[in-house]
């Protein structure tokens, strides 16, 4: 059983309109949620490296592939985090995502935010490396901006 409707993309692929997102899922709960969702017709999963729950999603996928669905029936989306925008980091993070999920490929890989962070400083580094942030900080300290 599938929840049905898909959207045709310019590539010819079809993405399920309804998907299960895993942002802010409670630890130890996302595995069961993903398993139940797939058993009840969900075919699109929306994940991200920064959510830090892809290994749990991978555990659920092991339970349902191939007994409930074939891998080709699922649409798996994940996202490249801001600390991995440098070319040498992109493939490294993708490989880590695939390993966590126990998959050979993703159907869609997005850039999570259009802002790059310096790698190696945790998920949300405190460095003001973005020129816009430096400009705003300057305006705040010189008076025209209060916050």
TrEMBL record:
GO MF annotation list: oxidoreductase activity
UniProt cross-references to Pfam families, sorted A to Z: Aldo_ket_red
Q: Which organism is it from?
A: Mycena chlorophos (Agaric fungus)
Gene3D superfamilies in the record, alphabetically? NADP-dependent oxidoreductase domain
What protein does this entry describe?
Aldo-ket-red domain-containing protein
What region holds the NADP-dependent oxidoreductase domain? 18-115
């Amino acid at each position: 059983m599938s929840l049905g409707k898909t959207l045709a993309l310019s590539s010819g692929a079809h993405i399920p309109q309804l998907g299960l997102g895993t942002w802010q899922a409670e630890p130890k709960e996302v595995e069961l949620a993903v398993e139940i969702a797939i058993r009840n017709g969900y075919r699109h999963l929306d994940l991200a490296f920064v959510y830090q729950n892809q290994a749990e999603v991978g555990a659920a996928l092991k339970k349902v592939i191939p007994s409930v669905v074939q891998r080709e029936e699922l649409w798996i989306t994940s996202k490249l985090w801001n600390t991995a925008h440098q070319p040498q980091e992109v493939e490294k993070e993708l490989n880590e995502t695939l390993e966590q999920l126990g998959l050979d490929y993703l159907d869609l890989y997005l850039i999570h935010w259009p802002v790059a962070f310096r790698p190696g400083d945790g998920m949300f580094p405190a460095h003001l490396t973005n020129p816009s942030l430096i400009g705003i900080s300057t305006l705040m300290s010189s008076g025209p901006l209060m916050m």
